[in-house]
Amino acid sequence: MNRERALKVVLVFVGLLFSALIYPLTMFFSSEAALAMMLSLYVTLGIFLLIAARNPSANRSLIAFTAWSSFAHAAVMGVQAFRNIVSRGELGGVAVLVIVGVALLALAPAKESVGRTSTAVA
User: How many of the other CB atoms lie within 10 Å of CB of 116?
Assistant: First the structure.
């Protein structure tokens, strides 16, 4: 399987995973307002990842945002778990987010060459 095909598979998988958070979003809508707001962002991101799977090279910044925001979320959750702000069970979510970030960065499309970009601008 080539790199672009693997990236498309990962984008669809993560997009479906994030979009599936619509169910917990509806469950926590009234009882956990902050969690519901965060989940709404992930559901939206999931939909855009599904769209990005059609043409990953045209959506490089969205892929990078997803990877780096996954790392940021994992870092915050990890610190909170170790400081007993949230339960240690959240470390499973930390692992998932780190795997998502690593997979997306490892498979991300290459940057366009500078010569090609500067020619278009000139």
Answer: 8
